[in-house]
Design a protein that fits this description.
The complex is a heterodimer of chains A (about 130) and B (about 325).
Chain A lengths: L5 E7 L6 H12 L3 E9 L1 H10 L4 E6 L4 H14 L6 E6 L3 H9 L5 E3 L5 H11 L3
Parallel strand pairs in A: 1-2, 1-3, 3-4, 4-5
Chain B lengths: L3 H6 L3 H12 L5 H8 L7 E7 L5 H13 L5 E7 L8 E3 L14 E7 L6 H16 L3 E7 L3 H7 L4 E6 L12 H6 L2 E4 L7 H14 L10 E3 L8 H17 L2 H30 L6 H8 L5 H12 L8
Parallel strand pairs in B: 1-5, 1-6, 2-4, 2-5, 6-7, 7-8
Classes of the chains: A alpha/beta (about 130), B alpha/beta (about 325).
Bound molecules: guanosine-5'-triphosphate (GTP) and magnesium ion.
GO molecular function (chain B): GTP binding; GTPase activity
Organism (chain B): Desulfotomaculum copahuensis
Family (chain B): Belongs to the SIMIBI class G3E GTPase family. ArgK/MeaB subfamily.
């Protein structure tokens, strides 16, 4: 039996580039995880559907612009509708302190990583929180 | 444990996804699950898609899926990418090209890493195909990069295999690996919007002339572009023709039989291999024989006879 942590890395929303998401994706791969990379401009529906089909442990959202306060709740809602609340949702990007607090307290995001968080920290967090 | 098989048969996506995970992980319950799935398999048409990196396999799978969905058929996709031999991780990016089908409930897409499991890749893929087959997919597209032997092995289990090539730059007929040429049922020259298409078509036809294959199916050479969609309807039509051909002239059952023989052979070989390895390792039940050979009290042939005699009764049954 050889279990591997599977992570979906997505870049929702309409804005710009996915450089950050790609760096994270590669970093997680180098830490031995299977990373399903879905690219730019994902709708919450696409993110959740892909996460279900790929049976991932974690959804990692790369956030650049301000839509996160609606995005995270929407994704959680869709996960619930599909009986998939066991999939953890985390995010990274520029999110103000008070909104991080609100998202975590609301249970919309398990963890949020601010820019500059070392990759090892993210890897470590995932390894600790996914029951293998 | 929740009953994944029952839920799968009633069309539950999460169960399909979870079953594939259990298979990939080689979970203890894998065999029992496959045992229950098996009666519900054998219906789907399995189409292998292989070719060099960047040939446009995923784009082609995406375009084909659109074409197949026009007929209301349910599509399963398995996209295999290499696992890094250093970290054991994998970056699975084929979905990027298939985004428009993500939320279509008639399409199920799954990415798999090769995981470097010795010869197990073909088996894991084969078993994942069974899951999607039982899930009710009419057509299952399996994408692999055509480089390694185990990727080639996967293609031996497809009903129809597409080999994707590109004009111009890389794909000269001389550089294409022999193994890949032999498994092609249909040659697809993708990126036909680029220069050099006619030459590549000519080269492949010439190659087919100089080494014709057994049987009455001569692999057609088709041209496609996923940019403007040209050739995609023809490609799907040709896949269906190939399918009818193998269905109708009685070769299908022969082909299926051969494939089952191959699968069973591989399963037996893996088990026997494991038995031998474990038996001869330190502490294994056959290990004392090594001492005997070392002391020249026995020769390796006689030792092999002994081991076979001892193990042939009921010892081969644990996977
Ligand atoms: N010009 C042209 N480019 C194409 C065509 N089809 C695909 N491409 C491009 O070729 C590149 C690779 O396409 P993919 O579909 O990812 O190719 P692939 O064979 O699946 O690649 P790997 O899975 O990485 O081996 C992308 O940049 C596509 O946009 C085509 O018909 N014409
Ligand atoms: Mg691909």
């Amino acid at each position: 039996m050889s279990r591997k942590i599977r992570v979906l890395v997505a870049k929702p929303g309409l804005d710009g580039h996915d450089r950050g998401a790609r760096v994270i994706a590669r970093g997680l791969r180098d830490a031995g995880m299977e990373v399903i990379y879905t690219g730019l401009h994902q709708t919450p529906e696409q993110v959740v559907e892909a996460a279900i089909q790929e049976d991932v442990d974690v959804i990692g959202l790369s956030i650049l612009s301000g839509a996160h306060m609606t995005l995270f709740p929407r994704i959680c809602e869709l996960l619930k509708e599909n009986n998939a609340e066991d999939i953890m949702v985390v995010g990274g990007g520029t999110i103000p302190e008070d909104e991080i607090k609100a998202l975590k307290e609301g249970g919309w995001a398990k963890e949020l990583f601010t820019p500059g968080t070392p990759l090892e920290k993210i890897v470590e967090w995932i390894q600790e929180n996914v029951r293998v | 444990m929740k009953d994944y098989v029952e839920k799968l048969l009633s069309g539950d996506r999460r169960s399909a996804a979870r079953l594939i995970t259990l298979i990939e992980n080689d979970a203890p319950e894998k065999q029992a699950l496959l045992h229950r799935l098996y009666p519900h398999t054998g219906r789907a048409h399995v189409v292998g898609v292989t070719g060099s990196p960047g040939a446009g396999k995923s784009s082609l799978v995406d375009a084909l899926t659109g074409q197949i969905r026009n007929e209301g058929l349910k599509v399963g996709i398995i996209a295999v990418d290499p696992t890094s031999p250093f970290s054991g991780g994998a970056l699975l990016g084929d979905r990027i090209r298939m985004q428009e089908h993500t939320t279509d409930r008639g399409v199920f897409i799954r990415s798999m890493g090769t995981r470097g499991c010795l010869g197990g890749l073909a088996q894991a893929t084969r078993d994942a195909v069974k899951v999607l087959d039982a899930y009710g997919c009419d057509v299952i597209l399996v994408e692999t990069v055509g480089v390694g032997q185990s990727e080639l092995d996967i293609m031996h289990h497809a009903d129809t295999t597409l080999v994707v090539l590109n004009p111009g730059a890389g794909d000269h007929i001389q550089t294409i690996k022999a193994g890949i040429m032999e498994i092609a049922d249909i040659f697809v020259i993708n990126k036909a919007d680029l220069d050099g298409v006619e030459k590549l078509v000519r080269d492949i036809r010439a190659m087919l002339d100089s080494s014709p294959r057994a049987g009455d199916w001569r692999p057609p050479v088709l041209t496609t572009s996923t940019l403007d969609g040209r050739g995609i309807p023809e490609l799907w039509a040709t896949i269906k023709t190939h399918r009818e051909k193998i269905f109708n002239n009685g070769t299908r059952s022969a082909v299926k039989r051969k494939r089952i023989q191959r699968e069973l052979t591989e399963i037996l070989q893996r088990r026997i291999n494991r038995l031998i390895t474990q038996g001869l390792d330190a502490g294994g039940r056959f290990e004392p024989v090594l001492e005997e050979i070392l002391a020249r009290r026995m020769d390796p042939y006689r030792a092999a006879d002994e081991i076979i005699k001892q193990s042939w009764k009921g010892e081969l049954s644990d996977e």
